[in-house]
Automatic annotation (TrEMBL):
It comes from Crassostrea virginica. GO terms for biological process: regulation of cytosolic calcium ion concentration. The keyword rRNA-binding does not apply. This is Calcium-transporting ATPase. It is an enzyme of class 7 (translocase). It catalyses: Ca(2+)(in) + ATP + H2O = Ca(2+)(out) + ADP + phosphate + H(+).
Length: 1209
């Protein structure tokens, strides 16, 4: 292994040495807060530098990064991986599937039927053949239930397996910058080890705990741990403690990693909340015995409580330290009792996970404490997606209808039987006939339950799951990394896209193409030697020093391609300008290392500039760069051609703006102004009027007084070309009914030029281009409040919002979503890359974060991550979203036709012939096989460009359109006519025995077999019709592109042949002749011809009142959905509603794996953040005090303030 110090190659522990500090001591360090932490490290370890030596790492070079050293550190200090919760076993999924109420009812009914079949009967009551066949139906229904349960469990198992694979990919995508072997490297957060030197910058989510080595204007949002939204200022001496899961909101710096994985704040909270893997049932039972352990009482020594920084409230109301000594040194030791942990997740839950609904049970306090009432926990989930809301509504309506028909069928059968037997025939109920009557009633009950089974579309949740899962995996190939599954289908309904400019519409490959310095405007790179010596020095030093030291320009490896730009692209453009001038910026940085910088005012969306103060012999020098019109206003001097400062009047500024900045912006260039100022400690050294003598009490924290009276060095015009494919993509969006708006922080002229090149603005059209100031002026009333009425006058015509703040972006997005100008309501997608884009990304229906340039905060707030930062990928997301929506609609059209026909046949059969022409086992076959396979076939259609040729559905448009209603009613009528003709005349047409009025357990007849087979054939061919839902005539178009559909359709056809010919008594079928098969298939194929006739019928002839799912107004929808959600989650006591509630419960049960995946994505993708959870300190406070209702603004609730909306000035 490497020696103690290896210059330029990092450090690692010698073989014969031990680390100077252990895990326990590192955890103890992190228990201290603010200045106490600094004092403790100084007192116990001699400072951070000495601690680095004890961990065998270098503050500048980092660790060596050798595999042996990394493995050694993981072994001693643990790895930065939190063991995931183990997946559910197949048997657990089977047990969950069998909890379905309807399946339980079927099982009970089948068992009763089975038991009665073995009860001895007299010869006159049925005969030997009937009694022998009596048990078959009961066994067949039980077998069908077993198949349903196994298929459901297998589907859930497969889905969870796929989702975990996707989850692991997302985890790998999350990377962090560290220094190893003297080189900056981006590594997956799971590979970070104790001793790493991590480079933090604004927008980062810290993946581990650490101590600050060096910082520049560093501010951190610790609300995820403390609940306090105020940003905490960090510094080497003020507050050096950095905790995992917190957000860096401003500044930059370096930190020494001191705790990872289960020993970090993230790991501790995950362990407390049960996210860590537990080692077997025995250990869990053992832990449960010590129930008071986590309440602060001393344990029996078996397993000590987890160390955690925080406090608990004692009986006197004082805060007492809550610190324990148990150390989780590796993943296997994560055994934590969570019996008494009841996390309260409040509104600032950054993930909107479903665990926000966790309720805190009432508990009696310890002796002497009052009993604390349980706080009401508000759900912090995002609003339901468009499709979820519509499916929820539809499930209720289907549940009501199905329950009503099922109850009617049972009542009609029982009443008719009773009237016939006991009224007309005059029989009496005797003990001998009791089993026979009960068996008859059970038979009727089974028919009723089977009608309910068929009525509720069992394949719907499977179709939703398959469509979403299939789309998610395919979208990854199109550079869309989906974090929330419902974002897929929501994107298909998008009516507006608010897009960033930099990197999304443009290439994010910035270069300086124009410059103004020394009174000359250069349209190409100037001759450096021709510049005045003062300008030469100031230009190179200002750019090299007053840029993030993580921003670098690296030559192409082959020496042929363009140099590689790392870090902030604007800064890279300026550094590239220095290189183009033939100078070397890194030599200046070697001379003035980052540690030597006296003061840094980092860029943020408020400043729109960055300033750095360095020490000089005469005092201090301030460098500033930023948005040209902002920095120029702070300049009182400008360097002339000789490099001498000359007065820079307001008139001179206006000339520069008119003759230099506006022409640059008109060419689509981003304009950056670079300036400086000298501060002298001694008045005798001052030589120019532009220089200032420092006062004795000079306050460097007063930025406004420091950054003023500047001297302008140069103005640059930076080109960021529009992506070649963007204009065509925007045109596609516009033809698809989607309005694209550009929201940028750039100059209004630059934004207008880029928008014109993209096609967002077109000639001779009256669209609005506003800057942030004018935008706010137009939308605010006399009281300064945002008025929806005023906003509604602006947003329809607004196409470009320039010089916008994150608050402006949020206001625009919220205003469009809340607006009721359009009948279908707007569905808004937003792109963002900066920390402060978080609120807008969260408020949007679909938030897109930039995978390359985006900050971790933006990614966390988003629904989809664009891995290539390309607008074209958003268009692909629209296609996939519409495809998901259409896939569900196709399945619904097919499924509701099947359900409608099956229910009507069962109902009228019960009314007329006291029996259902479709037997219980046959309807279960249709319900299981047809639904499951049809959902798979229709959910795997690939999207086509045809999807972009129609308008979006919008927020309030019914899921089932009038065209679909026409198709459902038309095909239902055809199928019902065919089935009833076969029922009443089929025996005469085919010259076979009549199957009507047969006794219970009578042998199967060809008559009813023909009805069953014809129904299946019509259903199969109608599945082909269902592929088109917009009235297209060519139903076979695109069929070759879907081999899954062809395979499933063919397989189902073959299975039906086998079932009919060989099903026998089990499936109540009797083998058919070839002639009979021909007629069954002919009637099935006729469905295709009938479909063409239906298409010919104008949709307008369908009255809107027939579409009963349209009756609920959009304003009532949220209340209804919320009410339903409460009922289903709480399972109301009124058992009479259980059957119709079962419809939605079934949907939610089968989609539970999606919700679990969504939680997993949020938690594991951001496992380094745990921002959806409070610290134990917050949990304890919640348990020991009454909840206080607070009104928070959307921005405050999100906990994501500060930062930048775009990486620009």
């Amino acid at each position: 292994m490497a020696e103690d110090q290896v210059d330029g190659m990092g450090m690692s522990r010698p073989r014969d040495a031990t680390y100077g500090v252990d895990v326990m001591e590192l955890r103890k360090i992190m228990e201290h807060h603010k200045h106490e932490g600094y004092d403790y490290v100084q007192e116990k370890h001699g400072g951070v530098q000495e601690l680095c030596k004890q961990l065998y790492t270098s503050p500048n070079e980092g660790i060596s990064g050798s595999p042996v050293d990394l493995e050694d550190r993981r072994k001693v200090f643990g790895s930065n991986v939190i063991p995931p919760k183990p997946p559910k076993t197949f048997l657990q999924l089977v047990w969950e599937a069998i909890q379905d109420v309807t399946l339980i009812v079927l099982i009970v009914a089948a068992l009763i039927s089975l038991g009665l079949s073995f009860y001895p009967q007299s010869e006159s009551e049925g005969g030997e053949s009937e009694s022998e066949a009596g048990w078959i139906e009961g066994v067949a229904i039980l077998g069908a239930v077993v198949v349903v349960v196994l298929v459901t469990a297998f589907n859930d198992y497969q889905k969870e397996k796929q989702f975990r694979g996707l989850q692991s990919k997302i985890e790998h995508e999350h990377q962090f910058s560290v220094i190893r072997g003297g080189q900056d490297k981006n590594i997956p957060v799971g590979e970070i080890v104790v001793g790493d030197i991590a480079q933090v910058k604004y927008g980062d989510l810290l993946p581990a705990d650490g101590l600050i080595i060096q910082s520049n204007d560093l501010k951190v949002d610790e609300s995820s741990l403390t609940g306090e939204s105020d940003h905490v200022k960090k510094g080497e001496k003020t507050d050096p403690m950095m905790f995992s899961g917190t957000h860096v909101m401003e500044g930059s710096g370096k930190m020494l990693v001191t705790a990872v994985g289960v020993n970090s704040q993230t790991g501790i909270i995950f362990a407390l909340l049960g996210a860590s893997n537990e080692d077997g049932e025995k250990e869990r039972k053992k832990d449960k015995k010590d129930k008071n352990r986590l309440k602060g009482e001393e344990g029996n020594g078996a397993v000590a409580a987890v160390a955690y920084r925080g406090s608990r409230t004692n009986t006197a109301g004082q805060n007492t330290p809550y610190v324990r000594d148990y150390v989780l040194s590796n993943d296997a030791e994560t055994k934590v009792d969570i019996e008494n942990i009841h996390p309260v997740v409040t509104g600032n839950n950054a993930h909107n996970n479903s665990n926000a609904n966790n309720k805190v049970p009432e508990e009696g306090g310890e002796e002497g404490e009052e009993k604390v009432p349980k706080p009401k926990v508000e759900s912090a989930r995002k609003e339901k997606s468009v499709l979820q809301g519509k499916l929820t509504k539809l499930a209720i309506q289907i549940g009501y209808g199905g329950t009503a028909v099922a109850v009617l069928v049972v009542l009609i059968l029982i009443v008719k039987f009773s009237v016939t037997k006991f009224g007309i025939e005059g029989e009496s109920w005797t003990a001998e006939k009791t089993p026979k009557y009960i068996e008859t009633f059970v038979f009727y009950f089974i028919i009723g339950v089977t009608v309910l089974v068929v009525a509720v579309p069992e394949g719907l949740p499977l179709a939703v799951t398959l469509a979403l899962a299939y789309s998610v995996r395919k979208m990854m190939d199109d550079n869309n990394l989906v974090r929330h599954l419902d974002a897929c289908e929501t994107m298909g309904n998008a009516t507006a896209i608010c897009s960033d400019k930099t990197g999304t519409l443009t290439t994010n490959r910035m270069t300086v193409v124009q410059s103004y310095m020394g009174g000359a405007h250069y349209k190409s790179t100037p001759n450096f030697k021709a510049l005045a010596p003062t300008i030469q020095e100031l230009l190179v030093r200002s750019i090299a020093i007053n840029s993030g030291y993580t921003s670098r320009v690296i030559p192409d490896k082959d020496g042929e391609g363009l140099p590689q730009q790392l870090g902030n692209k604007t800064e890279c453009a300026l550094l590239g300008f220095v290189l183009d001038l033939g100078q070397k910026y890194h030599t200046v940085r070697d001379e003035v290392p980052e540690e030597a910088l006296y003061k840094v005012y980092t860029f943020n969306s408020v400043r729109k500039s960055m300033s750095t103060v360095i020490s000089m012999k005469f005092g201090f020098r301030l460098f500033t760069k930023g948005a040209s019109e902002i920095v120029l206003k702070k300049c009182n001097y400008i360097l002339d051609c000789d490099g001498k400062p000359k007065p820079f009047t307001v008139e001179d500024q206006e000339k520069i703006v008119k003759n230099v900045i506006e022409p640059m912006a008109g060419d689509g260039l981003r304009t950056i102004c670079v300036a400086y100022k000298d501060y002298h400690t001694d008045a005798s050294t001052k030589t120019e009027d532009s220089e200032e003598v420092m006062k004795d009490n000079h306050d460097w924290e007063d930025e406004d007084s420091v950054v003023q009276n500047l001297t302008c060095i140069l103005i640059t015009g930076i080109q960021d070309p529009v992506r070649d494919e963007v204009p065509a993509s925007i045109k596609q969006c516009q033809s698809a009914g989607i309005t694209v708006r550009m929201v940028t922080g750039d100059n209004v002229n630059t934004a207008r030029s880029i928008a014109t090149k993209c096609g967002i603005l077109t000639p001779n059209e009256n669209f609005l281009v506003l800057d942030g100031k004018e935008f706010n002026k137009r939308i605010r009333d006399a009281n300064g409040e945002v008025s929806q009425e005023l906003l509604d006058k602006i947003w329809p015509d607004l196409r470009v919002l320039a010089r916008s703040s994150p608050q402006d972006k949020y206001t625009l997005v919220k205003g469009i979503i809340d607006s009721k100008l359009s009948t279908s309501r707007e569905v808004v997608a937003v792109t963002g890359d900066g920390t402060n884009d978080g609120p807008a990304l969260k408020k949007a229906d679909v938030g897109f974060a930039m995978g390359i340039s985006g900050t971790d905060v933006a990614k966390e707030a988003s629904d989809i991550i664009l891995t290539d930062d390309n607008f074209t990928s958003i268009v692909k997301a629209v296609m996939w979203g519409r495809n998901v929506y259409d896939s569900i609609a196709k399945f619904l059209q097919f499924q509701l036709t099947v359900n409608c026909v099956a229910v009507m046949v069962a109902f009228f059969g019960a009314c007329i012939i006291n029996d259902s022409p479709l037997k219980a086992i046959q309807m279960l076959w249709v319900n299981l096989i047809m639904d499951t396979l049809a959902s798979l076939a229709l959910a795997t259609e690939l999207p086509s460009m045809e999807l972009l040729k129609r308008k979006p559905y919008g927020r309030t448009k019914a899921l089932i359109s009038r065209t679909m209603t026409k198709n459902i009613l038309g095909h239902s009528i055809y199928q019902l006519i065919v089935i009833f003709v076969l029922l009443f005349e089929g025996n005469n047409l085919f010259e076979i025995d009549d199957g009507k009025y047969a006794k219970i357990h009578a042998p199967p007849s060809q008559h009813f077999t023909i009805i069953f087979n014809t129904f299946v054939m019509m259903t199969l061919f109608n599945e082909v019709n269902a592929r088109k839902i917009h009235g297209q005539r060519n139903i076979l178009e695109g069929l070759k592109r879907n081999p899954v559909f062809i395979g499933i359709w063919t397989g189902t056809f073959v299975a039906q042949i086998i079932l009919v010919q060989f099903g026998g008594t089990v499936f109540s079928t009797k083998a058919l002749t070839l002639d009979q098969w021909f007629w069954c298939v002919f009637l099935g194929v006729s469905t295709l011809l009938w479909g063409q006739i239906i298409t010919t019928v104008p949709t307008a002839v369908i009255p809107k009142k027939i579409c009963w799912w349209r009756r609920k107004s959009s304003a009532e929808e949220p209340e209804m959905e919320e009410e339903l959600e409460e009922e289903v989650d709480g399972m109301p006591g009124r058992r009479g509603q259980i059957l119709w509630i079962r419809g939605l419960a079934r949907l939610q049960t089968q989609i539970r794996v999606i919700n679990a995946f969504r939680m997993g994505i949020d938690a594991r993708y951001d496992s380094s953040s745990i921002s959806s959870m409070h610290s134990y300190h917050s949990l304890q406070n919640q348990k020991h005090r009454k909840p206080v209702a607070t009104a928070a603004s959307p921005l405050a609730t999100s906990g994501e303030e500060g930062g930048a909306s775009e990486t620009q000035f």
